[in-house]
């Protein structure tokens, strides 16, 4: 989506990269301010951050919590130190993937969507359906959003392959992330039922 927005709108996209509710270094209460020429906003931000702006195609993409955790875990392991206190602590403590799951369970969805009615989104897509969902979003937006563009991919590794092949560990991760999975599956079920769900 980032590439598609950039290709289509150029400098009329605002990249809101300083108000991530999962980054303790960010001030999520700072009021939003957009220049008049901005027609699209993208970032890791709360769903309601721009609720009072006339940006009417409100979209989000969700990813299965276990799949997302595995991706983020191995991405963070290879990412140089950032301004995120959580990332710096992760690098210092080097938790196991199950420890990381238990430490972060139940935090991301409330941070991004807590108190927000998910029915207020014009479109909710899903990572594992990105081909179909980006095609549907392209029709809504009126310009192509290719599904085959992957930015910042998590590097493959034997350790990641071992996690993906360990059924018992995957089951433990699902138990640890049960609250996140419940939220994800409810949103997914409602979304796939269609309007009015």
Which outline best applies? Answer: globular
State the helicity in percent bands. Answer: 40-55%
Give the tally of β-strands. 4
Which strand order does the major sheet show?
1-2
- Assign the structural class, choosing from mainly alpha, mainly beta, alpha/beta, alpha+beta, or little secondary structure: mainly alpha
Biggest pleated-sheet summary: 2 strands, parallel
With helices defined by DSSP (H or I, 4 residues minimum), what is the helix count? 9
Topology as a string of helices (H) and strands (E): HEEEHHHHEHHHH
Span between termini: 26 Å
- Strand fraction equals 5-15%
Q: Radius of gyration, rounded? A: 18 Å
In the predicted model, the low-confidence regions spanning at least 5 consecutive residues are none
The oligomeric state is single chain
Average pLDDT score: 92
Structure notes:
The structure is a single chain. Helices cover 46% and strands 8% of the residues. The protein has helices at residues 2-9, 65-78, 85-93, 97-104, 108-113, 130-141, 158-164, 167-176, 178-193; strands spanning 13-16, 40-43, 59-62, 123-126. α4 (97-104) runs parallel beside α8. It is globular, with a radius of gyration of 18 Å. The mean pLDDT is 92.
Secondary structure layout:
Elements: H1 2-9, E1 13-16, E2 40-43, E3 59-62, H2 65-78, H3 85-93, H4 97-104, H5 108-113, E4 123-126, H6 130-141, H7 158-164, H8 167-176, H9 178-193
Parallel strand pairs: 1-2, 3-4
Question: Can I get a quick summary?
Answer:
Helices cover 46% and strands 8% of the residues.
């Amino acid at each position: 989506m980032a590439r598609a927005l950039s290709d289509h709108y150029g400098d009329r996209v605002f990249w809101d990269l300083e108000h991530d509710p999962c980054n303790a270094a960010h001030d999520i209460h700072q009021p939003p301010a957009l220049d008049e020429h901005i027609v699209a906003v993208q970032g890791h931000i709360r769903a309601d951050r721009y609720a009072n702006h006339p940006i009417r195609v409100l979209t989000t993409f969700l990813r299965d919590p276990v799949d997302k955790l595995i991706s983020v875990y191995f991405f963070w392991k290879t990412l140089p130190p950032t301004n995120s206190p959580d990332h710096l602590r992760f690098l210092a403590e080097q938790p196991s993937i199950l420890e990381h799951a238990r430490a972060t369970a139940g935090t991301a969805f409330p941070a991004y969507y807590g108190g927000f009615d998910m029915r207020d989104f014009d479109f909710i897509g899903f990572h594992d359906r990105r081909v179909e969902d980006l095609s549907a979003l392209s029709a809504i937006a009126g310009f192509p959003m290719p599904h085959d563009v992957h930015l910042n991919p998590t590097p493959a590794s034997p350790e990641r392959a071992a996690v993906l092949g360990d059924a018992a560990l995957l089951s433990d991760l699902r138990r640890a992330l049960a609250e996140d999975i419940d939220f994800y599956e409810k949103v997914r079920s409602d979304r796939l039922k269609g309007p009015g769900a």
